[in-house]
Amino acid sequence: VSGDMETPGRIVVPPHALDFTVENVEKALHQLYYDPDIENKNLAQKWLMQAQVSPQAWQFCWALLSPEKVPEIQYFGANALHTKISRYWSDIPSDQYESLKTQLFSQIACFSSGSKMVLTRLCVALASLALNTMPEAWPGAVAEMVRVFQEEGGGVDGRARCLALLELLTVLPEEFQTCRLPQYRKGQVRGALGREWGSVCPLLQQLLQRTDSPGAVKARVLRCLSSWVLLDVPLSESESLLHDCFGVLRDPELFDTAMEAIVNALSQPDSQRSVNTLLKLVPQVLSLQDQLREAVQNGDMETCHGICRITVALGENQTRTLLEQVDHWQSFLALVNMIMFCTGIPGHYPVNETTSSLTLTFWYTLKDEIMSFEMEKRTLYLQVYRPMYFQLVDVLLHKAQFPADQEYASWSLDEKEQFRIYFRVDISDTLMYVYEMLGAELLSNLYDKLGRLLTNVEQPASWQHTEALLYGFQSIAETLDVNYSDVIPGLIGLISRISVNNVHLADTVMFTIGALAEWLADHPVMLGNVLPLVLHALGNPDLSISSVSTLKKICRECKADLPPYANNIVAVSQEVLIKQIHKTSQCMWLMQALGFLLSALPVEDILRNLHSLITPHIQQLEKLTNETPNPSNKLAIIHILGLLSNLFTTLDISKQDEESGDGSAPPVKPTSLPSGPNPVVVVLQQVFALIQNLLSKWLNDSQVVEAVCAIFEKSVKTLTHDFAPMVSQLSEMLGQMYSTIPQVSALDLTRQMLHIFSIETEHFSPIKALFELVTSVTLSIFQQGPRDHPDIVDSFMQLQAQALKRKPDLFLSDSLDVKAVFHCGVLSLKFPEAPTVKSTCFFFTELLARCSDVPPLARVVQEDGKLLIQAVLEAIGGGAPRSLMDQFAEVLFSLNKHCFSLLSVWLKEALQPPGFPSLRVTTEQKHNFSQQMLRERVNKRRVKEIVKEFTLLCRGLHGTEYTAEY
Fold it and tell me: What positions does the domain Importin N-terminal occupy (predicted)?
């Protein structure tokens, strides 16, 4: 650093380390805090970080602590001390430990009445020193800290010394949690700290019990306890101190810190070992009930929250321990009742209370523990706790109720979201868990309540009460099998009696019907009761999501029984689509619903319904196609294309499973199909010319092209071999599209077509021509520079791999430049995009597996395989992310399996040059890697381990902390 005399405080990059002086550090700190130029600040910060770890730090840090300096400078000095002790401990000679300790004690005493932030950093520095020296070099470290600060001296008043000692004792366990001790030392030091608790606990208890202890001291005592219990100090050794903490809970100033200390103590994993202490703490927690009720009456949400946290910490963390104490079952039952009170605390979450949500996990835990006992014990516990779980259902459904309309209207959007999307969903999950314990009896219970509610003419039910009970049914039916329940027919009868006068109630009615779709499939006679409700709701934009998703579920599950209702469903759906009642995503779901519906109809009915359904959209598409392209009509075009592709996604008359198209299994030809072309094919052939015309106008727009390709991709996936009549014309159109403007969606569709039709003799010719054309066009992209098109390269590699896997004969063609494809693969291995590299590795593993059967592949591997090895080794040497090493290992394994003799030569030649694939590996390490690789021709897992080990060596990470993570 050179101090510029005309502009004091300005620093430049230091020419050498000797310039880390007190004066320069102060100038750099001034620049860091006060220079308005952000670059100067960054420069100063970088320099200060170097200063802090330099050997000179030992000189300047003490000088920076001098009393006349400002706190920011003193803080830097204290922080530098901590950095040196914690990170460079091995640089400190052992004969200086004692003087360093004495100086730190002295500085802490000086700062006990000074800056709090400096005092804390000095305490952390001394804590670090203690952790590095205990137990051997500094046995009884904590006892000595207590003794030093209890002695009179230094003119520092007792209260300040006491607070400094408590700060030191608080940061000591915290520093242990974050320090960088080796694993074996961590265990030793943890044990030593545990033994030191005997010196800390009496001091904390004494300070907490003294009536003359100031509030600040008691608060620090409680924070100190919180810190120490995280070391898993046995609960029995803190018992009396914890009892004192309960006494402090009545003090509003200390409530939060006392509560945190108790919660931390009760939440420690080892606390269940101290059974007797836990049993003594149960009455202490139960004694808080009066304070809890007072807080509820006074609307003191924070106290409610805190007491609930204590109650749940004991109940949730010690459930099994307390359940097993059969002699004390009544006190645990009382604790469970207290948690029940917290679950049902008055008010609406999250506006008037935030406590009830804390308890929900407890009910899972209690149920799991009870159900895990052997049968005899479980039966005993169920007798006691089943009635409580029925009570819990009532409490939960009461909490799930919406508030009065006027109150709900006053809530913020965030509060409504918290209530509906988080809290009610948590309640729904809890009810599902409860059902696992209570079974069908729970549904009967809910049904009886709903029946009484809806038939009580004297006192009409509020919509909130009805909705909550239905929500209970929906929560259970949505995820669990309720087919054997005998109350569902009655429930459907009750649903039709509900006076739906609120949008939330209407939503829940819809979702409940949707949750019963599988049951309706087994009881189709009930469809007539619910379909009119769903179709009526379909016309209400406020019920868009619930009505459309419910119709989709019914059409998917019950399609075999829907033909009598088909005309009505199609007519209502068509009307809402034309009126544009629903948003785009719901329109897509609606089309999927109609696809399921039409699948079950006779072919002539499908065609008739298809024409009436899509004709208005086709006419609109024709009109839009003839307009000049602009952003507005683009959205409309994509919307209509989306409607068609979603309809064709689910319209499957062959009843065969939808193929994923990932090459995992060849699609099976259906044995019996209706005569004549598939209705989807008929429609696609009719609109094909229109789509071609549309593409001619929009070929530059990837979103429109993607939407067009999606129609055919969904159709091919659903129809598989039924799509055959269109293979030739679609292949021709795809070739023209890709030749004009190459796009990923066209490549993906080509891959889909190749997967299904390349193995069929009658379709091989158009698929082969398309594959060769697409390959040729993509190779020209590689010649021009493929870096701007990683998505195309990725999809192209997937296509080539699919071709190798499905129909390697494609590579026998003279029109296909196999050598160029291989070279493009080698180039693609060096791309920075992980998906592209993964696809390329998959391509090479497929290629190497086929080279013995396909002569052109064998030739290119023989001639250019060394380039592949070099690219793979370069990646392993550090050229590719470590997360991709398994994929490169797969390529090496494939080479070893299929080209062993060539690989042994290539490996030797490729690893010959010094510094390749990394400067960090020696010739011997490269030789070992090569030998290990060549030995493994069967065990792929071992090859992956060898590659991982070698890449760590290449990156200089072998033996570091990263190795364990890897």
Answer: 44-110
Q: Which two tokens stand for residue 534?
A: 């769903």
Q: How many CB atoms lie within 10 A of CB 223?
A: 17
Dig out the tokens for 909 from the structure: 């030649």
Distances from the Cα of 231 to the Cα of 243, 269, 319, 386, 578, angstroms:
19, 10, 22, 38, 67
- Cα 39 from Cα 37, distance rounded (Å): 6
- Kindly report each contact of residues 208-211 with a partner whose C-beta sits within 8 Å and lies 24 or more positions away, as own/partner: 208/241, 208/244, 208/245, 208/248, 209/244
The yes-or-no verdict on residue 87 having pLDDT over 80 is yes
Other beta carbons less than 10 A from residue 906's beta carbon:
19
Nearest to 351 by CA among 278, 414, 297: 414
pLDDT single digits (tens) 566-601: 999 999 999 999 999 999 999 999 999 999 999 999
Cα distance between residue 523 and residue 521, in whole Å: 6
pLDDT digits (tens, 9 = 90+) for 329-377: 999 999 999 999 999 999 999 999 999 999 999 999 999 999 999 999 9
Q: Which DSSP symbol is given to 36?
A: -
Helix (H, G, I), strand (E, B), or coil: what is residue 630?
Answer: coil
Over range 644-651, report the average pLDDT.
95
Please report the pLDDT score of residue 752 as a whole number.
Answer: 95
Residue 607 burial by Cβ neighbours in a 10 Å radius (0-12, 13-18, 19+): middle
Q: How much is the mean pLDDT over the chain?
A: 90
Burial (CB < 10 A; 0-12, 13-18, 19+), residue 672, is exposed
Cα distance between residue 81 and residue 78, in whole Å: 5
Place of tokens 């190459």: 742
Provide Rg for the chain, Cα atoms. 37
Rounded CA gap, 472 and 429, in Å? 10
Place of tokens 């829907």: 562
Reply yes or no on whether the pLDDT at 621 is more than 90. Answer: yes
